[in-house]
Amino acid sequence: MRTLKGSLKLVDVSGELPELKRKPGISKWKIQDKDLQWYTSHSSLGNEKRKEKIAASSFPPTDEEAKEFQLHKCVRVYPHMQDSGGFFIAVLEKVAPKKSEETKAEEEI
Predict the structure, then answer these.
(1) How do the domains of the chain map onto residue ranges?
(2) HEC-encoded secondary structure of the chain
(3) Mean pLDDT, 10 residues at a time, the chain of 109 residues
């Protein structure tokens, strides 16, 4: 979502499959490294070696990004809730071309 800048949006599918037991998407989480240390942002990783191994895109969005992304529209299905495997569901709708597609289209004109 960060790199596509408004070309995609999440679709609210909470009304679909009403029997499916689910939880909404989240917009805050922590990242744990192999040494079992927890981090809340890429800048909190400290050393450069750790920053190279853990991508900045792994971390939660800023408050402004969270409002834009509307991650609550995602669906989380836990195994114990549905007597199934765990699932993450996100329905995306393309609402505008990517910036590179716009540039390519303008060049063709």
Answers:
(1) 1-25+74-109, 28-61
(2) CCCCCCCEEECCCCCCCCCCCCEECCCCCCEECCCCCEECCHHHHCCHHHHHHCCHHHCCCCHHHHHHHCHHHCEEECHHHHCCCCEEECCEEECCCCHHHHHHHHHHC
(3) 82 92 95 91 89 91 92 95 92 86 56
